[in-house]
Write a structure and sequence with these properties.
The chain is α/β, with parallel strands linked by helices. It is built from six helices and six strands. The chain has one domain: 3-Layer(aba) Sandwich (Rossmann fold), CATH 3.40.50. Helices cover 40% and strands 17% of the residues. Strands 1, 2, 3, 4, 5 and 6 form a six-stranded parallel sheet that branches. It is globular and about 45 Å long.
């Protein structure tokens, strides 16, 4: 392995009590860790203590998150779909930083009912574009997610979702390596 690993911040977006995001995150992280090119840093917004009100002087929790985002080469957002959209906690995280997101790729793992969280992903793509991120085409979408996992947190039928993880990570790693080199040779300025 000649190239350095891709530092990837995985952002767990739901902060709801009783959330299903823990199950999805554990499953996804287990699959992503199998890729030797990925160096994972999990930012769980339920534990990040970001403020509900953003001020000109960021709180220490926001500064810590910004440092971790700045160190990342790529991002993966794990998001549910709540009322046809993504959670407010994820919007707060996105708005808590700016330059740290820029010129880096982002991929999505979504979950929900019949739509599998895809409506939240489509909205996130617009916000991420405004923050100068490059979103990968493919994502991982878990439709009717509560019924797809067994009591141990494993997928009952893993073949399709596991293949989607591999495709998504391949795309993300390609973009991350290309954009890391581009930022090194020509710093990104918006």
């Amino acid at each position: 392995m000649d190239e350095p690993r891709i530092r990837t911040a995985v952002i767990v977006g739901s902060t709801r009590e009783g959330r299903f995001g823990d199950t999805v995150a554990r499953w996804f992280l287990g699959r992503a860790a199998l890729n030797e090119m990925v160096d994972l840093d999990v930012i769980d917004l339920a534990e990040a203590n970001l403020p509900a009100r953003l001020t000109n002087m960021p709180v220490p929790a926001a500064m810590e998150m910004k440092t971790r985002l700045a160190d990342a080469d790529a991002f993966i957002m794990i998001t549910p779909e709540y009322n046809h959209g993504y959670p407010a906690s994820l919007k707060t995280a996105l708005d808590s930083a700016r330059e740290e997101w820029m010129g880096k790729p982002v991929a999505f793992v979504s979950y929900g009912g019949m739509a599998g969280g895809l409506r939240s992903v489509e909205q996130l793509r617009q916000v991420c574009a405004e923050l100068h991120m490059v979103s990968t085409r493919d994502c991982v979408s878990l439709h009717n997610c509560h019924g797809r996992f067994d009591k141990t947190g494993q997928l009952k039928e893993p073949a399709g979702p596991e293949a989607a993880v591999r495709v998504m990570l391949d795309q993300l790693l390609w973009w991350a390596a290309a954009l890391r080199e581009a930022r090194k040779n020509h710093p990104y300025g918006a």
